[in-house]
User: Which sequence fits this backbone?
């Protein structure tokens, strides 16, 4: 299997000058292509910080993060933006679609930023919208879509750049059960059929149940890194 | 292309706010364009009046004449002197004049008159004197008749074809007198000129005042009025210390001062107007940055380079400013043209003040395209300068912080 993320001994402390908070502590993480991983843990356990570090949105105080063999901790701010654009897909809790653009334009934007050709963009948009089941909503504005539909558009946007992996920060937190299940179905399908790597930070039991690997963080440290939810906990809550 | 499309769509994100900002810019451009056009129109008219009514752009006299306008300060007219003046590149042509005062009299009235001896064709070329004839005919080269201004005619109680007598002091203490038929009536906008001017052929005036071939001034017409001061300097050098070369600004410094003062006060008003516009634009940018902080952070997170974001935000500001500017300019064009064709006419004290200067009390508008371009560019630059605020914000933006604080 191909290694996608290889993080060594990473730590991150906030408020260094006042009351230091060690958000991530000596974390080692090894993720391979095609994994479907849930980062779980109570609030303040460091899930989002770890996700930000892996996503190149923040830099660790110590340690290295290699993505496809590239140490992203050594990249400049500008290089990181470019790296994120070409290698990482993001799905946010509150969808974050641009309200003035249609669903199609929101997805196109990523590819336009990558400088792809019109024809390629058009074809990819059609494929992505078919995959997320929104081919009939291409020209709808975000405000005309339900929360679940918006998050599916966000998934299409995350996949548009053909990333190495997708980071999803609480993707189902603002969705009802049906929409959440629908979204997870799509993500599971993309993972199984296209071998797309997904890493979620989540509190949502529904996401954890679908994960094929669950990493539990407690106080910024990896408390457990196991197989599936069922293998891990035999039904007891992890969060 | 996509970034332009996105900027345009973002501009209309909050329609009401954009409409308010565009309106502020629109009214600022409209007001500043119209006021500047009126101001420039008034000044252009003022200068045109000074030049076309009487003074010309440049005059040449014997040294000291302007200080003491007496017949002792006349100079000899000569073809050589005229040739020397006309060889200056920017001088188009000249009109010789002999000016003095006399008592004009009919059977019942006696009034003072300013007698101006002219070369009819040359004078007409510079001051369009022929156009000011309201009754009768203009002078021909050998005419022994005279033209008098409408005001003087009324003051004397005379009419066309009547005869009047002139009596004054001639050159070197001689007596100047003559009897002349009125060939034409002139009407001037300037009350000063309208109340006392009396024109006759130059040789006739020289003969009456006993000053053959003498002149009080050459009035010059220039090819390019913008180069008036350079031309005057050049002529001063050529003619030497025996002559004085004066521009209309030197002959009528109060007009120059008036223009300067008026422009300064207008600048203050326009600056205040622009400060208000700046607040309007800045308010919009401020609100936009606050509202879209999360989104901007998200765009950086997903891979939009800050330089592209800056480009996007500057485009949004420019679109707003350009839309306001264009609307302001488009609406101001017909207004300014209307005011040029139908100038506002002063009344009351204001009108009197203008008349005291000797000018028609009207407010014509200038349609000089530079006014529209200047105002557009000023507002555009203001918009660009204010765009530095979101630019700085974006440069300092940390995507995590931006997305966290919502």
Assistant:
């Amino acid at each position: 299997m191909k290694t996608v993320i290889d993080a060594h001994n990473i730590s991150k402390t906030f408020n260094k000058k006042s009351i230091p908070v060690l958000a991530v502590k000596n974390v080692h993480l090894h993720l391979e292509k095609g994994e479907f991983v849930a980062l779980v843990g109570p609030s303040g356990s460091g899930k989002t910080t770890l996700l930000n570090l892996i996503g190149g949105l923040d830099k660790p105080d110590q340690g290295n993060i290699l993505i496809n063999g590239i140490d992203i901790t050594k990249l400049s701010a500008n290089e990181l933006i470019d790296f994120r654009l070409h290698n990482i897909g993001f799905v946010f809790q509150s969808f974050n679609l641009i309200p003035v653009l249609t669903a199609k334009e929101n997805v196109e934007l990523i590819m336009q930023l990558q400088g792809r050709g019109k024809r390629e963009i058009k074809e990819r948009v059609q494929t992505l919208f078919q995959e997320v089941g929104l081919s009939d909503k291409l020209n709808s504005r975000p405000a005309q879509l339900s929360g679940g539909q918006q998050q599916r558009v966000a998934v299409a946007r995350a996949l548009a750049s053909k990333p190495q992996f997708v980071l999803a920060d609480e993707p189902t937190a603002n969705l009802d059960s049906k929409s959440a299940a629908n979204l997870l179905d799509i993500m599971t399908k993309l993972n199984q059929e296209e071998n797309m790597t997904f890493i979620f930070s989540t509190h949502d039991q529904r996401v954890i149940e679908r994960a094929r690997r669950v990493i539990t963080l407690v106080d910024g440290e990896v408390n457990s890194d196991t197989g599936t939810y069922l293998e891990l906990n035999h039904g007891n809550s992890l969060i | 292309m996509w970034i332009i499309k996105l900027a345009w769509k973002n501009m209309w994100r909050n329609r009401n706010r954009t409409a308010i900002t565009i309106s502020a810019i629109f009214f600022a451009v409209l007001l500043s364009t119209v006021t500047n056009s009126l101001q420039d129109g008034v000044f252009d008219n003022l200068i045109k009046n000074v030049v076309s009514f009487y003074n010309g752009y440049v005059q040449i006299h014997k040294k000291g004449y302007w200080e003491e306008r007496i017949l002792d300060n006349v100079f000899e007219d000569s073809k050589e002197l005229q040739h020397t003046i006309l060889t200056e590149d920017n001088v188009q042509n000249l009109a010789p004049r002999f000016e003095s005062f006399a008592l004009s009299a009919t059977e019942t009235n006696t009034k003072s008159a300013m007698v101006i001896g002219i070369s009819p064709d040359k004078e007409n070329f510079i001051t369009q004197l022929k156009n000011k004839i309201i009754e009768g005919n203009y002078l021909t080269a050998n005419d022994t008749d005279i033209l008098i201004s409408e005001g003087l005619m009324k003051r004397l109680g005379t009419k066309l074809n009547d005869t009047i007598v002139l009596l004054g002091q001639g050159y070197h203490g001689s007596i100047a007198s003559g009897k002349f038929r009125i060939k034409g009536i002139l009407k001037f906008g300037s009350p000063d000129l309208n109340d006392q001017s009396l024109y006759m052929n130059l040789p006739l005036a020289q003969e009456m005042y006993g000053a053959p071939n003498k002149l009080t001034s050459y009035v010059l017409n220039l090819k390019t009025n913008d180069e008036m001061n350079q031309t005057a300097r050049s002529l001063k050098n050529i003619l030497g210390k025996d002559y004085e070369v004066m521009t209309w600004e030197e002959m009528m410094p109060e007009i120059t001062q008036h223009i300067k003062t008026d422009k300064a006060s207008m600048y203050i008003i326009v600056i205040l107007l622009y400060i208000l516009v700046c607040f309007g634009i800045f308010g919009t940018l401020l609100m936009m940055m606050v509202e879209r902080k999360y989104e901007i952070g998200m765009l950086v997170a997903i891979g939009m380079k800050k330089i592209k974001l800056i480009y996007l935000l500057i485009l949004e500001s420019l679109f707003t400013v350009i839309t306001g500017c264009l609307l302001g300019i488009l609406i101001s064009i017909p207004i300014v043209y209307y005011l040029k064709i139908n100038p506002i006419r002063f009344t009351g004290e204001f009108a009197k003040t203008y008349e005291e200067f000797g000018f028609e009390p009207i407010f014509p508008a200038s349609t000089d395209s530079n006014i529209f371009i200047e105002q557009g560019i000023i507002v555009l630059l203001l918009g660009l300068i204010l765009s530095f605020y979101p630019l700085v914000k974006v440069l300092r933006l940390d995507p995590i912080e931006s997305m966290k604080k919502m």
Remarks:
- Residues 15-55 of chain B form the longest helix (41 residues).
- Chain B touches chain A at residues 2, 6, 9-10, 12-13, 294-295, 298, 300-306, 308, 399-400, 403 (CB under 8 Å).
- The mean pLDDT of chain B is 88.
